[in-house]
Amino acid sequence: MLGDYAALIRAGEAWVLDGGEEVVGVIVMRPAQDHLCVGNVAVAPGHQGIGEV
Are the beta carbons of 22 and 44 closer than 8 angstroms? Predict the structure, then answer.
């Protein structure tokens, strides 16, 4: 996860799930002509495998 996430968020290509006191997850996705490219998905270890926050 070495990308410039501030720039990706401004471009609408990265979404952050804020759990209040911590970042719970992030997804980077870029629309293409006929598909959506998911570049990165990360979930905080304490929130993995539970389905929702």
Answer: yes
Bridge partners, 24 (sequence order) = none
Residue 13 and residue 30 in contact, taking contact as beta carbons nearer than 8 Å: yes
| 31-42 pLDDT per residue, tens | 889 999 998 999
Q: Which amino acid is at 36?
A: L
52 DSSP 8-state letter: -
Residue reference for tokens 């911590």: 22
For 9-33, the pLDDT digits (tens) are 889 999 889 989 998 998 999 988 9
